From TrEMBL:
Its EC number is 2.3.2.-. This is L,D-transpeptidase. Belongs to the YkuD family. The active site is at H134 (proton donor/acceptor), C150 (nucleophile). InterPro entries: LD-transpeptidase, LD_TPept_cat_dom, Transpep_catalytic_dom. Pfam families: YkuD (PF03734). Keywords: Acyltransferase, Cell shape, Cell wall biogenesis/degradation, Glycosyltransferase, Hydrolase, Peptidoglycan synthesis, Transferase. The keyword Glycosyltransferase applies. Pathway: Cell wall biogenesis; peptidoglycan biosynthesis.
Length: 174
């Protein structure tokens, strides 16, 4: 009986999602890759903390994508600079960092892959320890300062970016 009652509310939530998404998205600032990178070897990902947007350019410039994102919740959690994609994982597991466990001791030490995983469906691991561009199942986070340091995307957007980006893709977070 409970399952029957939950289904209509889930459907209503899904129907209402687009308006919730519009409220969360901040204004985008489109950049030129040339203002941030010397070349597009292996492609480029630009993460703009202020406009809460992620841009992607393919190596041959045939593909350009712009995605809304979540960004770190505070300047203390934000790392800026140049890095690169060093690993790609579909269905990532997740372990809170030591500082996250200090702030949230009730969190489990490990989250297996799945719908409740904080990294969503896909993750691009960066050369900086603990930093990722990853998905999220919590769509309320997109367009907000809500992460513990990572850049978050809707699961459907990270799946698309995951397919486009390769290990070695250069990344700038600014």
């Amino acid at each position: 009986m409970i399952g029957l009652l939950a289904a209509p509310s889930l459907l209503r939530a899904q129907e209402q999602e687009p308006s919730a998404v519009r409220r969360n998205i901040s204004s985008f600032s489109a950049d030129l890759w040339q203002d941030h990178f010397d070349n597009l070897q292996h492609g480029a990902i630009l993460c703009d903390i202020d406009s809460r947007a992620v841009q992607y350019w393919s190596e041959d410039e045939s593909v350009y994508k712009l995605y809304p994102s979540s960004v770190p919740a505070s300047e203390e959690l934000t790392r800026r600079g140049y890095t690169e994609v060093i690993r790609k994982v579909e269905g990532p597991s997740w372990r809170p960092t030591p500082s996250m466990k200090e702030r949230n001791p009730e969190w489990p030490d490990y989250w297996p892959p799945g719908p409740d995983n904080p990294l969503g469906t896909h993750a691009l691991y960066l050369s900086w320890q603990y930093y990722r561009v990853h998905g999220t199942g919590d769509t309320r986070k997109i367009g907000r300062q809500s992460s513990n340091g990572c850049i978050g995307l809707y699961n459907e957007h990270i799946a698309e970016l995951f397919a486009l980006a390769e290990v070695g893709t250069q990344v700038r977070i600014f």
